[in-house]
Design a protein that fits this description.
about 180 residues, globular
Length: about 180
């Protein structure tokens, strides 16, 4: 296992991209991977680049075989977590991202870095004060020593992730994205 990246909690987009790149298994060998139950149980697939065939991603079997860990947040905890955000942010967050962020925010997942290529999810991470708990896919691959960081795609690169973090810091200072205090 990598000593630079202790644990990773990826969203569905990252899991799909890693499968498309043929790096999912290698990443799971290099670092502990923690996947929210919402993502484990949803129908996740990718299109194999060379054959253009739809390939199902079998996360449940990987959990059963101990290759990845599954974590679960309660519906109550997720609902409570979402009260921090305004309606626009709530609408743009996906269930798997909400579950991951809830678990991190509640301290149930402490060592993992959240890896997402979704602007709303990265911004939510920052809005709740967990700026230091996120990582781009490009940086996650570099930290685990896997080749391919340069071909992740723009949405998964450090520059885009950093841009979203900067925007979220400004949003937080200006009160955007967060629920308004009624008083």
């Amino acid at each position: 296992m990598s000593t630079q990246l202790k644990s990773l909690i990826p969203d569905a987009m990252v899991i799909i991209r890693l499968h498309e790149m043929g790096l999912w298994e290698e990443l799971c060998d290099q670092t502990a991977v923690v996947v929210p139950s919402t993502i484990v149980h949803e129908s996740v697939f990718y299109v194999e680049p060379s054959s253009r065939e739809r390939v199902e991603i079998e996360l449940e079997s990987q959990v059963l075989e101990g290759e990845i860990s599954q974590v679960t947040a309660t519906a109550e905890d997720m609902a409570q977590f979402m009260t921090q955000f305004d309606a626009v942010m709530v609408e743009n967050l996906h269930p798997g991202e909400v579950e991951a962020l809830t678990l991190m925010h509640k301290g149930r997942v402490t060592d993992a870095l959240f890896c997402s290529a979704d602007q709303a999810a990265v911004k939510a991470l920052v809005l709740v004060g967990m700026n230091d708990r996120g990582i781009s896919l490009e940086d996650a691959l570099k930290a685990t020593g896997l080749r391919g960081a340069g071909r992740v795609g723009e949405q998964y690169c450090r520059a885009r992730f950093t841009q979203w973090v900067r925007e979220a810091v400004l949003d937080r200072l200006q009160g955007r994205g967060l629920a308004r205090d009624p008083f």
